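Contributing new complexes? Match this layout with iron/sulfur cluster.
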Amino acid sequence: MANEFVVTPWEVKGRVDYLRLAREFGVQLITDEDIKALQELAGDVHYLIRRGFFYAHRDLRTILDRQRAGLKWALYSGRGPSADLHIGHLVPWMLGRWFVDRFGVEYFFEMTDDEKFLVKEGYTLEQTNRYAYENALDLIALGFPPDKLHIIIDTEDIKYLYKIAVRVGKKLTLSTIKHTFGFTDSTNVGAAFFPTLEISVAFLPTELYGETVPVLIPTAIDQDPYFRLARDIAEDLGYPKPSTIYGKFIPGLTGEDKMSASNPDSAIYITDEERDVKRKIMNALTGGQPTAELQRKYGGDPDNCVVYKYHLLFQESDEKVKRIYEDCKVGKLLCGECKAMLFERIREFMKEHNERRERAKDVVQQYRLSTKFK
Ligand code: SF4
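Output block (do not edit by hand):
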């Protein structure tokens, strides 16, 4: 029986077949040629792309061609702000930081506090707005220069988006929105209007600069429906089509394809105490043998191991990752030691992150779009 899975912006269910998903969404896979082109322009390629975590795209080459020609482009991504920020949320933002560093581009970042309020039960608008500020600290903590990162908070910065959103809204029928996002007659009308705002930011740099500024959107592949719609209507509205680069989901430590808020042990939260991080990692699902003796004899299966996937995401050193892979295969590395190494890496990552997050509290306003564009 075919592997069944569901991927929408709000739901990921089943074992995701990423190649099939790319085919079904009609997106292109990142090829060796694309990587070579990036390497030539940037001088190196971020490990998240080299290791295949970011694996698909729409029109990445258009952006690279602009870069080669010295023409302007920008980055765009966003976050539905809520309390449950886990370390996996930082991964696409880390790639955003790399693009900013290598190409000196501006990064437009939308905090969709309106969307979280509209689609999620149990949140007040005041809470989602507060989380927008909390999550902004985590973004800033990744080390962006203030003149390159522009944070938009939907409920506070609507003046930048509204004129674009009404034009977008006029191009999209209710039936398109229902079909694309799986909305029903009982979906609230606020949620039905919201996609116009997420699409609007893709066109905002062109409006702000009064010239063609296409965006590249690094995000998880479940966001594709928004940007497929944006691309469909862009040219009719006189805007450039957005390009995208898509990542896979961060696997849950307990074996799920995506970290899940409903199972707190599947994810490491930014706010977790060190002892909880350790417990979660030490209990993570591995591809190891049932006993140390068998592991030494037959080796483990890193290709089917969540711990190894986390090493791939958070260990920058290619050499270290390669050694873990090879030592696991031949039974030289035991899962306990491997998990301890991962814990050390995550502990160090979180310590640095939380120190920088603390410092970010004094400088949030410098990163607001509204501080820089009147
Ligand atoms: Fe996974 Fe590491 Fe065990 Fe290998 S040694 S199966 S990579 S936890």
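Reviewers usually confirm one structural detail per submission. For this one: The chain has 17 helices and nine strands.
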